[in-house]
Amino acid sequence: MHGEELADFISCPGYDWLVSERFAEAFRAEALTGLDGFHSVEIIRVRRMRKRSLTPLAVPRYYVVSPCFGRALADPVLNRARISAPPTCPECRSTGIDAVHGIVLEPGTWSGEDIFRPRGMQGELLVTERFKVFAERHGFTNMRFTPSEQFVWDPSNLGPAPLPSS
């Protein structure tokens, strides 16, 4: 626990997330799509990350969910991705990505999920504007939204790959 309250959206090892009961109920009520599972978990212990933060008196119910691996395909050229190795799998398009400057999906590949992991960038969660408005309206915690065109992942400061000349 980093702050004074337990979060509504918590990353786990691997591709799963924990979501609060409050989040789960609202997600279902508003018929959003892209999360699978909603299996109840038992919280055994809450650890404080700072000595000054308070341990909560009550721990809400949490569920483990898996954001779907969507059909949407990240476009490596328009993402201005620097790639050190070509994809080895034509389905997942997993590759040696060294830097990304913006996220653009190949037209016609997205199936409309509100939250998903795109092929070619499975480590990232993409959400729709509808999901963002939903999260802000309910005041869910531990979520940060970055517009796709402003997304940058460039740990070695390589800069964006040049766009091909037309």
Could you give a quick summary of the protein structure above?
The chain is an alpha+beta fold and 166 residues long. The chain has helices at 21-29, 129-138, and strands at residues 9-11, 17-20, 35-41, 62-73, 82-85, 96-101, 115-119, 126-127, 152-153. A hairpin with a 5-residue loop joins strand 1 and strand 2 (17-20).
Question: What descriptors fit this protein?
Answer:
6-stranded mixed sheet, 166 residues, 2 helices
Describe the protein in words.
It is a single chain. With 166 residues, the protein is an alpha+beta fold. It has two helices and nine strands. The protein has helices at 21-29, 129-138, and strands at 9-11, 17-20, 35-41, 62-73, 82-85, 96-101, 115-119, 126-127, 152-153. The strands form two sheets. Strands 1, 2, 3, 4, 7 and 8 form a six-stranded mixed β-sheet that branches. It is globular, with a radius of gyration of 18 Å. The mean pLDDT is 86.
